[in-house]
């Protein structure tokens, strides 16, 4: 490898590593709503996916363009000295082509973004057709032919966008090639007369013509092509800059603070909220109060706003009106470290980490947790039976990424997620219905267990199964974005409202 190649390789590795790390860090620090908002999510995906390739090609294009300019400069000098007007003519004709190349490069990049939207959908459909996750449903519902049809539609949409863009590019570039060749032929034609009259020698004529054609080739092919690619890289850098300007969560990497006390009172006061970029108000003047060491259940129909309420409580959004107060202090004034120390949460779609079961639980307390503590939660959650069957016990990798990996059942994965939350140091434990894979009785058992081990802690859980809600000290019924009923299980049954109606319809599940 030539020395320049070696230097290029070294620089490229350094640049790529620096940017890759910076992009990963930035992603981790982004304010949560960027992830849920489609436009910013697409930008995040775009910038994060092929960082290495884009940076490498941008770097290559820059060095290529430098080299081409040096070569053009030397040929141009020869031509200027010999026939200045020929050099001027070529340069003049090349300027609009240069501009065309920049526009083509930008258009190519924009088209690739448009095509990507269809490709992403096509990739998803491809996954449905061949992925592991839905192999059973694929056989059961026999939807492969229909999905395949949709896949082809999406694939060809993306293909057509790419093809049309490439065709435009090709036509433009061919056109520029023809124009500049005509210019060179014109120069040759004009020089024939001085050659015939002996004003210039045949040697001089050949050297001028070869310089002119060389210049035209460099201007119309190499320079235009590289400029177009550079314009694409420039568009990527533009995206990268928009990405780096996205707002960040202050103190995103802060560890849970040590000095946070369990809150005595959490209060929602007239809280209203619409997701960023939408007009639909999800929470409407919601009011409620939660007290220390009590266990609360939020119930209500799908879409009532229960999970949204939790997202606000743990600080994922702060663009609500009204106030959320923790012992009288506004939630917006809490640091990330304090919020992390306050709340731990198990989401409906909790993560299934494909690492050892020990680490999968241990990351719930990244500051360090003893094996004894991990074993305690394992015992409490009845996971010891599962672990005793694993070939490498606590060190067995979960999932199927590794050859030695072992998959768990839906309910077992949920217990691992709950265990992770239980070993965290936070003072308020929240379960946002992570128990959907369990049957109603097993779900009730998990909540009873959770209730028992969280005796001295504040807990909140969301559930649709009211047999589980029974154990809560107080139940909040959320409907249409606000609290419509609250009280103990018995109080709500006696009230004969929505809760009583819902419980009646579910009674058979627990018989
Ligand atoms: N990121 C989002 N952007 C826009 N709207 C959203 C977003 N997330 C949720 N919603 C909407 O907010 C409403 C309330 O959703 P939420 O998840 O809080 O309901 P829920 O009571 O927890 O429902 P479920 O019991 O089905 O989980 C729904 O209409 C939902 O479509």
UniProtKB/TrEMBL annotation:
Keywords: ATP-binding, Membrane, Nucleotide-binding, Transmembrane, Transmembrane helix. The chain crosses the membrane at residues 83-102, 177-196. It is found in: Cell membrane. It is a multi-pass membrane protein. It comes from the Bacteria. Pfam families: ABC_tran. Residues 60-220 form the ABC transmembrane type-1 domain. GO terms for cellular component: plasma membrane. Residues 266-505 form the ABC transporter domain. One of its GO terms (molecular function) is ATP binding. PROSITE patterns: ABC_TM1F, ABC_TRANSPORTER_1, ABC_TRANSPORTER_2. PANTHER family: ATP-BINDING CASSETTE SUB-FAMILY B MEMBER 10, MITOCHONDRIAL, ATP-DEPENDENT PERMEASE MDL1, MITOCHONDRIAL. This is ABC transporter ATP-binding protein.
